[in-house]
């Protein structure tokens, strides 16, 4: 029943943890809130072949095995991973799934913390791959099918406040939801994200939506807050809401907190709304990720309850065929990012996430598409902090049936709810600049329904969806305005995107959602794409497919380790090594192409003005910060031997501007007064002046190299005998060159050598032939080719 997406699940909301006071909410981590209780750890586990086998007797009989939560059971010795790209891992048609359906049963006990009496108790599952069925103390609680966003259940009436409680969770790997989670990745299963409890008052702070906008002059901030208050008993007597904004040092920004009593500003839905001008706030961008903290407090006769969220002041606009952040046209230097670890599968820790983000910043990546589902909430906290432009993508892909499911009314609620779940949870993160309706799911009324809800709920961010303009599905890079505000094609040829900029009148900028497929020896045309980005005004970058190879670490019988891919787990059908298509290896070692990306995306560039006079210009390619955070060095080398070197003067160019520099120490060679022995180059390197979150002081962020016009010493002529005269003649459409008794024959029509002889005897069977064949690469599909002469030799 695809229309049954969940049962008894609470409405989606922002990630908010309750605290007893505003001070606690501002200063303390969630683990120090008395109203938060983490359930991660080692749980009991059993696995069955199909759901029908999960009976009360089967669950109670026999021993339980330990399993880590969060974690995929498929990488913990239960079942197996299964890789497919487009095809489903089973032959059924939607919405039917196989009778053989691995089913995991999780169990653990917990006690309610002291002080939670008379409070509302909520059970939170951050994400579960597979259909989730929850039981508490033997009673069914609820159901959820969206694998990548939270499922929360009110268990107040089902728990014992004194003594132990039993939590039993049943997860079926396959459900009708699998047909909208067909996302070119390993199929895993299990409780992949964290599980916890939290407690609120009876009147409680249900949700907060905080939007940090900028005014038309891009000078002052406009803080818009919508706070939802829940009243299970319907009584709001004596209740009020307060909100205060704090800067990064914890200092209050507003002269006094915003305040509204329940009786004077409430809407019928139980909402309080504030709008407040904030004078000249520090603005958020990927280069300047300035964050504020909003603390919202519900005051009731029984006490206070506070929560916090991040606010970033920025304005996102699409105007004149450009995506503008705070009025600036930014170039998207992006990566597509799947959740993957070569040991843990899709159950990622903070260390996993932060390691990826640090490496991306080190290689000048400024944007991420969350292909193809929402990440853990912590990921967005880190993107807010480190500075990334994020396309947040809904957990929707129906690739195997992309023409059918998007038009199937049985799946309409699944499409709409999955988008709602994402937007409601992530709405407070300034890093998110696009809402994406999913990936490779065709285009149909289900998308229109989801897009209509988003446009009504959050007009501050544009929409993104490739399927409505898909050039792979016969589209022509136009239309789809109802569901996408950006032209976001997948793997277009360079000539085609140039044609879009020059000849297509569509007002939307073109930002490729996927390009430069990084599988194997690849990314060969990357510099050509970037040349087009910088030359043509409607082209604004894109997201490389993809960041990491999805190999899973395995051990061979002899103890050596290797990375497994599709088919290595007897997973049939599969798509072989198509999952190993990242620009870093599974252990995050960079492929060579990542260094080229770093060069193309670097924040500074050196251009020659007049090298004979030692004059260059240093261009600041950043959008929001000057070059004063960098220092530079140069050297002049002759065939690798350094002739001169020095430090560049203080770098002071404003964003998008340039500064002139003269290399006085190199003038002796550049002017021609001194000569070199060979080819000479000027090399420039740029380093961070100060440590950042992602790299230490002295880290090299970019480099440039220019051919130097240094004169070379003339080589001394060697002594030799008398030179013989070369005689040239024509013979029957051929040119004949003769020196003594040596003769070379060339075809006049094509210039190829046709013969070479000595004393009248031709020594060549035939001359050189043109050969334009190259060795096949993974992107040619070498593993899948049918021609035996193209296959890898044993």
Brief account:
The protein has 794 residues and is mainly beta.
Strand order of the largest sheet: 1-10-9-12-6-3-4
Number of domains as seen in the coordinates: 5
Overall spatial form:
globular
CATH architecture group name of the largest domain:
Alpha-Beta Barrel
CATH topology of the largest domain: TIM Barrel
Which percent band covers the strand fraction?
25-35%
- Average pLDDT for all residues: 94
List the helices and strands and how they pair.
Elements lengths: L5 E2 L14 H6 L8 E3 L2 E8 L7 H5 L4 E5 L12 E3 L18 E9 L8 E6 L2 E2 L1 E6 L2 E6 L6 E4 L9 E9 L8 E2 L2 E3 L2 E2 L3 E6 L3 E11 L6 E10 L9 E7 L11 E4 H4 L5 E8 L13 E9 L2 E9 L4 E4 L2 E4 L2 E2 L2 E5 L13 H13 L4 E3 L7 H10 L2 E5 L3 E2 L13 H15 L5 E5 L8 H13 L5 E2 L29 H10 L6 E6 L10 H10 L3 E6 L7 E4 L5 E4 L27 H9 L3 E7 L4 E6 L9 E9 L2 E7 L10 E5 L4 H4 L9 E9 L11 E8 L19 E5 L2 E6 L2 E6 L5 E6 L2 E2 L32
Parallel strand pairs: 13-30, 27-28, 27-34, 28-29, 29-31, 31-32, 33-34
Antiparallel strand pairs: 1-10, 2-16, 3-4, 3-6, 5-14, 6-12, 7-11, 7-16, 8-15, 9-10, 9-12, 17-18, 18-21, 19-20, 19-22, 22-23, 24-25, 25-26, 35-36, 37-38, 38-41, 39-40, 39-42, 42-43, 44-45, 45-46, 46-47, 47-48
Helix pairs in contact: 4-5, 6-7
């Amino acid at each position: 029943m695809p229309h049954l997406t969940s049962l008894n699940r609470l409405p989606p909301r922002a990630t908010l943890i309750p605290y007893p006071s505003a001070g606690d909410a501002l200063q303390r981590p969630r683990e120090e809130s008395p109203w938060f209780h983490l359930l991660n750890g080692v749980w009991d586990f059993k696995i069955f072949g199909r759901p029908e086998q999960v009976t009360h007797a089967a669950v109670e009989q026999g021993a339980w095995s330990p399993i880590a939560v969060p974690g995929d059971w498929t990488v913990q010795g239960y079942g197996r991973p299964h890789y497919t790209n487009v095809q489903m891992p089973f032959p059924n048609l939607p919405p039917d799934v196989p009778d053989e359906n691995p089913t995991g049963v999780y169990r653990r006990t917990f006690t309610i913390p002291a002080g939670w009496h008379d409070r509302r108790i909520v059970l939170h599952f951050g994400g579960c791959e597979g259909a989730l069925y929850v039981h508490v103390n033997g009673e069914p609680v609820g159901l959820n099918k969206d694998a990548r966003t939270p499922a929360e259940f009110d268990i107040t009436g089902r728990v014992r406040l004194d003594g132990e409680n039993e939590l039993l969770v049943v997860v079926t790997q396959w459900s009708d939801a699998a047909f909208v989670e067909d996302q070119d990745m390993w199929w895993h299963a299990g409780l992949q994200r964290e599980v916890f409890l939290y407690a609120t008052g009876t009147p409680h702070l249900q949700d907060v939506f905080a939007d940090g906008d900028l005014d038309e002059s891009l000078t002052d901030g406009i803080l818009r807050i919508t706070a939802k208050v829940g009243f299970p008993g319907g009584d709001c007597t004596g209740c009020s809401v307060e909100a205060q904004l704090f800067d990064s040092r914890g200092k209050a920004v507003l002269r006094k907190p915003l305040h509204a009593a329940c009786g004077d500003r409430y809407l019928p839905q139980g909402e309080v709304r504030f709008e407040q001008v904030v004078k000249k706030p520090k603005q958020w961008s990927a280069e300047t990720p300035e964050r504020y903290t909003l603390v919202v407090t519900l005051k009731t006769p029984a006490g206070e309850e506070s929560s916090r969220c991040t606010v970033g002041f920025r304005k996102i606009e699409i105007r004149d065929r450009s995506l503008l952040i705070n009025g600036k046209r930014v170039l998207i230097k992006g990566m597509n990012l799947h959740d993957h670890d070569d040991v843990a599968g899709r159950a990622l820790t903070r260390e996993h996430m932060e390691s990826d983000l640090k490496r991306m910043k080190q290689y000048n990546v400024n944007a991420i598409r969350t292909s193809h589902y929402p990440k853990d909430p912590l990921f967005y906290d880190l993107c807010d902090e480190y500075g990334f432009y994020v396309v947040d993508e809904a957990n929707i892909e129906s690739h195997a049936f992309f023409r059918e499911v998007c038009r199937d009314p049985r799946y309409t609620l699944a499409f709409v709810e999955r988008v709602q779940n994402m937007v409601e949870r992530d709405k407070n993160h300034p890093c998110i600049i696009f809402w994406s309706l999913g990936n490779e799911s065709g285009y149909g009324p289900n998308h229109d329904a989801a897009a209509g809800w988003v446009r009504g709920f959050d007009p501050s961010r544009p929409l993104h969806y490739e399927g409505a303009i898909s050039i792979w599905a016969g589209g022509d890079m136009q239309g789809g305005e109802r569901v996408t505000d950006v032209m976001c094609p997948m793997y277009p040829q360079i000539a085609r995107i140039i044609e879009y900029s020059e000849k297509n009148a569509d007002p939307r900028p073109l930002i490729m959602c996927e390009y430069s497929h990084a599988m194997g020896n690849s990314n060969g045309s990357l510099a050509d794409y970037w040349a087009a980005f910088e030359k043509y005004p409607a082209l604004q970058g894109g997201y490389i497919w993809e960041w990491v190879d999805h190999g899973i670490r395995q051990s061979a019988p002899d103890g050596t380790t290797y990375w497994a891919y599709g088919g290595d787990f007897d997973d049939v059908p599969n798509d072989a090594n198509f999952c190993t298509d990242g620009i870093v290896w599974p252990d995050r070692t960079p492929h060579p192409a990542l260094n080229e990306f770093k060069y193309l995306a670097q924040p500074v560039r050196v251009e020659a003005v007049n090298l004979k006079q030692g004059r260059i210009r240093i261009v600041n390619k950043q959008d929001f910060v000057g070059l004063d955070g960098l220092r530079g060095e140069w050297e002049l080398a002759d065939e690798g031997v350094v002739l001169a070197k020095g430090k560049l003067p203080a770098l002071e160019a404003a964003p998008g501007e340039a500064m002139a520099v003269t290399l006085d120490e190199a003038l002796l060679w550049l002017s021609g007064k001194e000569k070199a022995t060979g080819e000479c180059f000027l090399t420039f390197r740029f380093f961070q002046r100060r440590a950042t979150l992602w790299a230490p002081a002295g880290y090299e962020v970019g480099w440039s190299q220019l051919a130097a016009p240094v004169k070379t010493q003339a080589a001394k002529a060697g002594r030799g005998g008398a030179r013989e005269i070369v005689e040239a003649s024509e013979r029957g459409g051929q040119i004949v060159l003769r020196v003594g008794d040596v003769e070379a024959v060339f075809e006049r029509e094509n210039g190829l050598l046709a013969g070479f002889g000595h004393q009248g005897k031709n020594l060549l069977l035939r001359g050189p032939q043109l050969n334009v064949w190259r060795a096949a690469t993974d992107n040619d599909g070498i593993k899948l080719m049918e021609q035996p002469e193209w296959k890898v030799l044993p």
